[in-house]
Design goal:
Length: 512
């Protein structure tokens, strides 16, 4: 009897989510479990590899229980996970230390060292400038925790740790798929391999890095012991999986050159889709990630707290004034109406959304700012200015992409996340960027992307790009850009970019 179901698991920073799908893409059950984050000292952010495993087991078992299906009908499972942190295992595939989170900035001196000495080479070869990711973190452990570094057989991602333990792998079988390696500072993106040149230059033993595989490669099967933890039958196939952003892009059907992917969540992430590798060596703003689909790339950049700035405004400047008894969603609806009253460009009021520092390009000294307000500006101007600032930042990213690829034709943007529900924000983004905006009907994308990868590993799907595109259905009609407003916004985008340059100089002066 043919297998009917697939499991995708998203190992996020604060929560693990599992979902059970029919092979036609219909979600049957899902489950979420919080993952602890530890702050032992100021500036230190850690997690336990074992927490990733236990929460994955609990959520998968819950999905199977809720659905009532026979576990033997599950064809395969795959994981996606957070991408820039790093974990360490010994020869027996046991944790050497806690997982070093992407939120942990202990490696800042190592980032500076890599940027000053090897920044151009790393950006050119990996597609990503030195940032808070694997290479700097590994160098930090080598320098500050030498005993633990010596005990480390391989450095792994959360998805690799969980799948490896689930399959009973040894350290020499540890793996990482190619969608993560731009965040390594140690890879050759074009070849899909580790760069011996970089590793030798920075002093990292390439033997401590896991083998690089395709996302759908079968890395093992569920062991007898893991079957008790997860509720799956022994022998169920385990695919390598991929990074969470790559899984989300696949789940949203971003599989054709010219498409744009907007994650309008706590962080505001904009990713393109191209068939060319063109690292942003000049600006160090775009990070070029391999797509799950061979031959495609996702140049991307993000604002760490883009969506969070809206919540902050609501809580600090609106909620407290209008009373906290109202439902949050009602407040957002009222703020949407407010923003609609303000004119295009918010009467020349500009907002800098980098409240905790700018990520792309890396400018940790940056902070938020409103510039240009006067006695005539009201609440609606300030709120609309936040919405427009994210769109302006996105335009800055796409301007760089167009410089790198002058012939690129941007066809549509697909938006997911809580901010995708905002009609006015989608319209603003469409008008600023000059591309139609589509909100997708599917509510979950990461686990679906992982499940599709599991399906390919089991031979259920042949053409992943076709399956992904055909299963990404828009909700309603696309929000089309207005060309007159687009031309007006071009002036504001140029002013915004100049303003960011001025603020960068100013905040760097303040922090020195």
């Amino acid at each position: 009897m043919a297998k009917k179901y697939l499991v995708g698991v998203d190992l996020g920073t604060s929560a693990t989510k599992a979902a059970l799908y029919q092979v036609d893409g219909t979600m049957i059950a899902e489950s979420t479990k919080a993952v602890p984050i530890y702050y032992p000292e100021p500036g230190i952010v850690e997690q336990e590899n074992e927490d990733f495993y236990s929460t994955a087991a609990q959520t998968v078992k819950t999905c199977l229980s809720k659905s009532g299906i026979e576990p033997k009908e599950v064809a395969a499972i795959a994981f996606d996970s957070q991408m820039a942190g790093v974990g360490a295992i010994d020869e027996n595939h046991e944790s050497v230390s806690r997982f070093d989170s992407w939120l942990d900035m202990r490696c800042e001196p190592q980032i500076k060292y890599l940027e000053e000495n090897f920044g151009e080479m790393i950006t050119e070869l990996t597609g990503c400038p030195p940032t808070c990711d694997h290479g700097p973190k590994i160098l930090w452990w080598k320098s500050e925790r030498p005993e633990e570094y010596k005990r480390t057989a391989k450095f792994v991602m959360p998805g690799g740790y969980v799948a490896g333990k689930m399959a009973g792998l040894s350290a020499d079988q540890a793996f990482i798929d190619y969608t993560y390696i731009h965040f390594s500072a140690l890879s050759n993106a074009i070849e899909g391999s580790w760069s011996q040149e970089i590793c030798d230059a920075v002093g990292i033993d390439v033997g401590r890095l896991p083998k690089i595989v395709e996302p759908w490669q079968v890395v093992g099967e569920v062991t007898e012991e893991a079957s008790k933890d997860f509720g799956l039958v022994p022998g169920t196939l385990i695919a390598a999986g991929c990074g969470d952003t790559a899984a989300g892009a696949l789940g949203a059907g971003i599989v054709r050159p010219g498409m744009v992917f907007d994650t309008a969540g706590t962080a505001s992430v904009l990713a393109g889709c191209t068939d060319q590798y063109a690292p942003d060596v000049k600006n160090r703003a775009l990070l070029t990630m391999r797509s799950v689909i061979p031959g495609l790339w996702h140049p991307l950049a993000y604002i760490a707290g883009g969506g969070q700035a809206l919540t902050w405004f609501r809580d600090q400047f609106y909620n407290s004034y209008h009373g906290e008894t109202q439902e949050d969603q009602d407040l957002y609806s009222q703020l949407e109406q407010f923003a609609a009253r303000a004119p295009l460009g918010s009467s020349d009021l500009y907002f800098s959304p980098h409240l905790t520092g700018r990520i792309c390009p890396a400018t940790p000294e940056m902070r938020g700012a409103w510039v240009g307000f006067s006695f005539s500006h009201k609440q609606e101007h300030f709120y609309r200015a936040i919405l427009e600032s994210v769109a302006y930042e996105y335009a800055y990213y796409l301007n760089i992409l167009k410089e790198l690829m002058p012939n690129i034709n941007l066809t549509e943007a697909r938006v997911i996340g809580g901010g995708a529900q905002s009609k006015i924000w989608n319209q603003i983004k469409a008008d600023v960027l000059g591309v139609p905006y589509l909100r997708l009907s599917r509510s979950e994308f990461g686990t679906w992307g992982a499940a599709m990868i599991a399906g390919k590993s089991a031979g259920i799907y042949d053409d992943l790009a076709q399956v992904a595109y055909e299963n990404s259905i828009s909700e309603g009609k696309p929000v089309k850009p207005d060309q007159d407003r687009h031309h007006q916004y071009e002036i504001h985008v140029n002013r915004y970019i100049e303003l960011q340059e001025t603020l960068t100089t100013t905040f760097r002066k303040f922090s020195s």
